[in-house]
Amino acid sequence: MNIGVLGAGQLGRMLALAGYPLANRFTFLDTTGHPSAGIGDVMIDTDRKHLDSFLEQVDLVTYEFEHLPVSLVQAIEEVKPVYPSSEAIRVCQNRAEEKALFDRLGIPTPAYRLVEHADELETAARELGCPVVAKSVTEGYDGKGQAVLRDPAEAHDAWRAIGHPRLIVEAFVDFVREVSIIAVRGRDGEVVFYPMAENQHEDGILRYSIAPMPDLDDAVQQTADGYIRALLDELDYVGVLTLELFQTRDGGLLANEMAPRVHNSGHWSMDGAVTSQFENHLRAIQGLPLGDTAARLPTCMVNVIGREGDPAEILAIPDAHLHRYDKAERAGRKLAHVNLVAPTHAELLAKVRACAALLPDAPAPRFSFE
Amino acid sequence: MNIGVLGAGQLGRMLALAGYPLANRFTFLDTTGHPSAGIGDVMIDTDRKHLDSFLEQVDLVTYEFEHLPVSLVQAIEEVKPVYPSSEAIRVCQNRAEEKALFDRLGIPTPAYRLVEHADELETAARELGCPVVAKSVTEGYDGKGQAVLRDPAEAHDAWRAIGHPRLIVEAFVDFVREVSIIAVRGRDGEVVFYPMAENQHEDGILRYSIAPMPDLDDAVQQTADGYIRALLDELDYVGVLTLELFQTRDGGLLANEMAPRVHNSGHWSMDGAVTSQFENHLRAIQGLPLGDTAARLPTCMVNVIGREGDPAEILAIPDAHLHRYDKAERAGRKLAHVNLVAPTHAELLAKVRACAALLPDAPAPRFSFE
């Protein structure tokens, strides 16, 4: 089975590393001119001239990046199976569509408004009550195209700074923590759920994910399972889907956004779960039985951003699993992650602090249950 | 770090899969004309014309196959670091040298004789007491170049069948089980030991390895650790070394043979240990800290030989981890292995039986502790 992957970054790289043991081969289609997968066959196609030969080589197509032209993915679907489908991409790459889907399925979200003018942004900020977050409805990725308004008077500046014709404005949520749920749906409709992770972002970039959470009520996990199952079934989805949520003081969940792919907040599963999110995505899209998603032990994923630190020092931490992406250092760039595993959450937190101290640009880890 | 690997089979493939997360790149030198690694850069060099360009590409050299000309490895050592060294290859590819080393280090072995003529073989068979095993001193691999003599009168036929000028003749050992110990020595001399595995061979090919063993006395593990540490230190060895042994009725250990490389009886570590033998080999040869060798849970490696069965059925077994080598089916060929993991040995044995039933050519699993 030769699997075609749209995008050729670290997610594709890790998909391939999970897929070789299933006897999969990988062909990546990179449209950026800067592939970093470093594995498999990488076709650079900045002018859409190589799509046909890419499609000739592959048996089915998946993607590691959802900000692709929907028309491109629809065209591919005419020729080869694509999982997840173009419909998932269409919804996920547009925050207005995404919120409408959440609303339709009864998945609660922070209060929001759609605006198409700076004046409307100001009105929305006033109605929702500042601070608010304004985001372009499209092309959002890792905190880009966003602005926080502390006062409705900042609306015109924010509008210009974001520079998009349509924004979604969201009320700030007084959340206890950011969490995510990752689930996998097979071609036959079977769904499995990973234990939820608690995520710490810094400047819009994920820094730490810890799973399972020591203090998570089973009922909250079941609520999240219900939300993501509704999304999976509604979209007739095949593969890994990620839903990021806020958990509020009363334990409730509010959906933030979703990603139709393997996700940074699921990297802990590579060393902490029976089956990694990457293997389960590949199992799903090939129609193979899904693997057990249970966590083996408490695990924390630490992102390595900007600068790498000394791999030897990281590897000296017991039960530390380093996953480097073989990319050049650059401020804000995801270069690697470390999965730390420990028998208890207390021991895990000590390891996380030890690891963070070895990474030049790591913020202090802070978890809600400390 | 670009790592050069002599040999391009499944062991090299799995080394590469473990090394990409360390940001290693791999160049394989295949001298057989039939590489199967399917990953990294593979240079086919059946006429020794590409060695220089191979060496230009790599920072250090290791190997997945020890039956290489010692002179070749010595020549490579003049240019690039080679781990383990040519001395390890020289000793391991010659059973007479190997036994002499065991003797020198006080590592017990089955009684043996070296013979250079059919008449000497007959005498040895008489003195040791049949049955005996006769093996060519060189090029032994997976049971090839061996014969069992049930009677000294079979000596001339066996001599001709093996067709080598120098044989080692070994007394049959009334063993309870075959076991192996795998250890890793770093560049700084640090040594770590994996839990011993119990191995089941069939027609000279490994079929099952289970680790840890539920009934292994700590003292036996320590004895094995001591034997392999003596070998590692004596050879100033860097990397993974495997020592196969027989365990006798009184619990004692007799060394059978060693392999200067990652080993089939250590594949369980990919899913059953904190750090796999492949990652630890790469850590060792790069001078990185060695990883924890502890087993997470009872694990059994099931070799898939000759025919693959249905991957979907295998993956439906809970906590089954399939590792396919992407090779064509052929009688006696190692095509894949399955690592089965379970909370208890009783549950593990049930999974092993379920898995064996799915493999067309699998013999019945039999473990000494059942």
Automatic annotation (TrEMBL), chains A, B:
The question of whether Ligase is a record keyword is answered with yes
* EC number annotated for this UniProt entry: 6.3.4.18
Q: What class of enzyme is it?
A: ligase
Its recorded reaction(s) are: 5-amino-1-(5-phospho-beta-D-ribosyl)imidazole + hydrogencarbonate + ATP = 5-carboxyamino-1-(5-phospho-D-ribosyl)imidazole + ADP + phosphate + 2 H(+)
User: Domain ATP-grasp: where?
Assistant: 99-286
The residues the record assigns to binding ATP are: 95, 135, 140-146, 170-173, 178, 201, 256-257
Q: Which SUPFAM superfamilies match?
A: Glutathione synthetase ATP-binding domain-like (SSF56059), PreATP-grasp domain (SSF52440), Rudiment single hybrid motif (SSF51246)
Q: What is this protein called?
A: N5-carboxyaminoimidazole ribonucleotide synthase
Q: Which organism is it from?
A: Franzmannia pantelleriensis
From the broadest rank down, the organism's phylogenetic lineage runs: Bacteria, Pseudomonadati, Pseudomonadota, Gammaproteobacteria, Oceanospirillales
